[in-house]
Amino acid sequence: MSSHARITASVYTSHVPAIGVAMDQGRTADPYWAPLFAGYEPSRQWMVDNKPDAIVLVYNDHANAFSLDMIPTFALGTGDRYEPADEGWGPRAVPPVLGHGALAAHIAQSVIQQDFDLTLINRMTVDHGLTVPLSLLFGPQRADAPGWPCPVIPLAVNVVQYPVPSGRRCFQLGQAIRRAVESFDEPLNVQIWGTGGMSHQLQGPRAGLINREWDNAWMDRLIADPAGLAEMPHVDYVREAGSEGIELVMWLIARGAMSDLAGGPPPRVAHRFYHVPASNTAVGHLVLENIPKESPQ
Ligand code: DHB
Ligand code: FE
Fold first, then answer.
1. Atom of ligand 1 nearest to the CA of 14
2. In this structure, are residues 256 and 178 in contact, taking their beta carbons and an 8 Å threshold?
3. What kind of fold does domain 6-289 have according to CATH?
4. Is 275 one of the catalytic residues?
5. 279 lines ligand 1 (CB under 6 A)
6. pLDDT tens digits for 4-24?
7. Is the distance from the beta carbon of residue 275 to the nearest atom of ligand 1 less than 6 Å?
């Protein structure tokens, strides 16, 4: 057993706020929602069987913790605790998100020394971009629980206000995060999650845009050709997947952290799911496992 931390898996999911509302209001069995939640059942079991010691959760804030006053491109949560944001209807009744100060400080040190100029955040609230993926993968949690089942290190990416980072830069950041995690000298099982997407446009004449074919081809490439996919320009996302489809660049951070980018074998697809509609959005979901190196017995 290695004495260092490892990224064992990456998890990808859309973060549609209406999914959180459906869970919080006990409407997951409604005919509209049941097929969506059925698609996450295998992953909830997989999470029970593969419980991480910590999650690096890549997401975007939607002008809740940040605003046009301050627009960090990549911001790592080095705090101990983050309360759910009030997005206009009161905060979600879910537990606070507890950080992992030691691992986050180490990632900050390592990634900044690898020339990524992260913003560090010790205090902020977290919105649906972060809490809806936790709800989808861990299931309903009592709001009075001390926290979610494991510590979570938020990594907030600006995909709301242009200029937003390129897919290539996101992919490189993921590779730097893998190196950071692997140099942390505790044998932690760390997952990295990429959230947002898939195709959706929430405003303007193209509001409601969904592009199933493009979404599924994009997931195929994320699995099999992530380096090529990282070269895709922003304009392709916006044209094909709608203005908010640009959130998908965050999935490239999680994908870049997988071992095959460092000479390991290709990841195993533990689960894949796609569903339309959820509110005005297409929902995509993937679980990719790193195959552990053969350890001598
Ligand atoms: C909606 C908001 C999001 O942030 C998102 O990623 C998808 C959908 C919405 O308001 O419906
Ligand atoms: Fe979003």
1. 6
2. yes
3. Protocatechuate 4,5-dioxygenase; Chain B (3.40.830)
4. no
5. yes
6. 999 999 999 999 999 999 999
7. no
Q: 50-86 burial, b for 16+ CB within 10 Å, e for fewer?
A: bebbbbbbbbbbbebbbeeeebbbbbbbbbeebebbe
Mean pLDDT of the chain: 97
Q: Which two tokens stand for residue 47?
A: 């999470």
> Active-site residue 100, yes or no?
no
Q: Which helix (H) or strand (E) holds 83?
A: strand 81-84
The three-state secondary structure class of 36 is helix
Model pLDDT for residues 161-193, shown as the tens digit of each residue: 999 999 999 999 999 999 999 999 999 999 999
User: Residue 16: CB within 6 Å of ligand 1?
Assistant: yes
pTM assigned to the model: 0.97
Residue 265 backbone phi and psi in degrees, to 5: -70, 160
pLDDT in tens, 136-155: 999 999 999 999 999 999 99
286 SS3 class? strand
pLDDT value of residue 2: 74
